[in-house]
Recover the amino acids of this structure.
């Protein structure tokens, strides 16, 4: 007889493990099934985010930023460094330690909240008498059942036809995090979040990085003014960013990869790289789920079809995170996981897509929430804009990082904040004030009237809000 639970969560990434914990807090008996394994074959909870995404990439970004500062910025502070060397093996070992700490942290949280964990690949078997049977294919096959099923199976890196990942020469985000030695020539196809972050890591470590992007504009989803500023700063740092290219044949040799492409002027080009990262997006992961066994509906792009409440076409089956519509962001998955657990309990879980922040963890960081200036123009919305540069911020000067700006967009009539966009130091932290303000439908004047600590980077946020009314005090 199979073990029966009120809620079975399939997937232990940010959406899944958070949904499981919240459901357990609400009094349900909960199981979570996840197939990720570490190098010893044990469970590696946390999904893509913890294992090959958010967490390890930030660890490498931090390490590489320290290395670059030691080599180029410390002298300004009167700190002299002789014989600077990069130990890539130690940098990767530190990253792996941080990943394991997060893996183990989720195991602890499951025990604390009495979530039963099953290590293996979950697949639907059948639906009988209001219960869904789930097979767990692990070291030993198990069968469990649940009244409510929450699918949080995440996404996979999208391969480029003709250049499949081998994680040696042609890399996904996974392979990009495990490069054993700094490549002399690194190619990146796709100027999105992953491409820019990984390109930045290895550029700081000494690689010559060339980014090839098919779109004619840089970071098209970002506010145009912010994107142009970021592009200028990245090129100044040494990233070679090529827009409007058309990728042709990719030829893999024994020790390098040749990429043939057409540039934005239509001229044929060829580049040879020691490593090639392909970051052209991600696809929903329903591999092995056996959705057809219970009639679970997928949309035309392979995502699990859900309504605004994350309900699928099946009674008591829900889906959250990368495997459904909406932005592929870990924190979006977490919010959906909490909301679904609360909806199962009869509560009114809430996720506001309009106030989900976005972050690119380059240096400078890029962060935004709400609509861009080009979106407001396209929608015919009358707005006011205010900007403030970090070069006029005392704390930024003290940090030695004055690149970028904060930009506010507010309704021309009501002054309600419609969007906030930042490129600059600690943008990922500064954006939270804007998220709170927008969630409570604050005006730019509200932020302008709030006392911000001095000296702090957050003063740039206040000053940008003041600039909406053309009364910035320090610029």
């Amino acid at each position: 007889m199979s073990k029966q639970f009120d809620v079975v969560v399939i997937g232990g990434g940010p959406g899944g493990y958070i949904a499981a914990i919240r459901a357990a807090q609400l009094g349900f008996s909960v199981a979570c099934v996840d197939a990720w394994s570490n190098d010893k074959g044990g469970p590696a909870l946390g999904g893509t985010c913890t294992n090959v995404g958010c967490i390890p990439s930030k660890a490498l970004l931090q390490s590489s930023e320290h290395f670059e500062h030691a080599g180029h910025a410390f002298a300004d502070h009167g700190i002299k460094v002789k014989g600077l060397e990069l130990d890539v093996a130690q940098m990767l070992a530190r990253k792996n330690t941080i990943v394991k700490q997060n893996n183990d942290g989720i195991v602890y949280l499951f025990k604390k909240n009495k979530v039963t964990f099953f290590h293996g690949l979950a697949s639907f078997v059948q639906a009988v008498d209001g219960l869904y049977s789930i097979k767990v294919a692990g070291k030993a096959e198990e069968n469990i059942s649940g009244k409510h099923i929450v699918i949080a199976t995440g996404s996979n890196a999208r391969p480029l036809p003709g250049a499949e990942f081998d994680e040696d020469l042609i890399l996904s985000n996974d392979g990009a995090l495990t490069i054993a030695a700094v490549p002399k020539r690194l190619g990146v196809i796709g100027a999105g979040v992953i491409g820019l972050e990984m390109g930045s890591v290895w550029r700081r470590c000494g690689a010559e990085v060339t980014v090839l992007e098919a779109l004619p504009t840089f970071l098209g989803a970002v506010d145009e003014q912010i994107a142009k500023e970021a592009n200028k700063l990245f090129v100044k740092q040494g990233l070679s960013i090529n827009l409007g290219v058309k990728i042709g044949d990719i030829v893999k040799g024994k020790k390098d990869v040749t990429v043939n492409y057409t540039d934005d002027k239509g001229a044929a080009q060829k580049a040879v790289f020691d490593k090639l990262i392909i970051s052209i997006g991600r696809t929903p992961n329903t591999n092995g789920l056996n959705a057809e066994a219970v009639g679970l509906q997928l949309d035309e792009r392979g995502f699990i079809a859900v309504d605004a409440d994350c309900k699928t076409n099946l009674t008591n089956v829900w889906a959250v995170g990368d495997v459904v519509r909406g932005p592929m962001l870990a924190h979006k998955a977490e919010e959906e996981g909490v909301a679904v657990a609360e909806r199962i309990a009869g509560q009114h879980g809430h996720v506001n897509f309009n106030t989900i922040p976005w972050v690119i963890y380059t240096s400078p960081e890029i962060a935004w929430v709400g609509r861009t200036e080009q979106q407001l123009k396209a929608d015919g919305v009358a707005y006011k804009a205010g900007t403030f540069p970090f070069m006029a911020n005392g704390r930024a000067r003290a940090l030695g990082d004055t690149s970028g700006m904060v930009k506010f967009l507010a309704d021309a009539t009501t002054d309600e904040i419609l969007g906030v966009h930042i490129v600059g130091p600690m943008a990922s932290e500064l954006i939270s004030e804007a998220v709170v303000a927008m969630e409570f439908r604050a005006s730019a004047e509200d932020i302008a009237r709030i006392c911000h600590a001095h000296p702090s980077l957050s003063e740039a946020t206040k000053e940008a809000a003041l600039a909406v009314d053309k009364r910035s005090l320090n610029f």
